[in-house]
Amino acid sequence: ERRGPFYNVMCRYAHAFGARRMQSDACNALQPGENRCAKWLLETHDRMGRDEFPLSQEVLAGMLGVRRASVTLAAGTLHRAGLVDYSYKRIVICDRTGLEAASCECYAAVKGYFARLLP
User: Do residues 67 and 75 lie in contact, with contact meaning Cβ atoms separated by under 8 Å?
Assistant: First the structure.
């Protein structure tokens, strides 16, 4: 038995990643496009670590599994609410708190799950 701290962290990560995948599948089946768009923008914002980042509507459509036109509608709603600004291949998060409120509960659930398993 050579299981040590690294093994334990990897097991917790694998568990959290599996839970994220299941939550994402349920989210994609049940949540409206605007909520899922907000969730993905928050997740991307978390990973990028800054308010402005490169992201095209085509790539976001692929991440969401929808047509680009659906992303245009969802992003337009978020823009009109003052939550994001976007232009060609660029997104700016203007109101993260508001974006969290516009997101489905899946974002907070997965974030909390990772925080508990990987403090």
Answer: no
- CA dist 109 and 100 (Å) reads 12
52-68 residues labelled b (16+ CB within 10 A) or e (exposed): ebebebeebbebbebee
Beta strands 90-93 and 84-87 are antiparallel
Distance CA 15, CA 108 (A): 17
Q: Give pLDDT, residue 102.
A: 93
Q: Tens digits of per-residue pLDDT, 31-85?
A: 778 889 999 999 999 999 999 999 999 999 998 888 999 999 999 999 999 999 9
3 or 1, higher pLDDT: 3
Threshold 0.70, pTM exceeds: yes
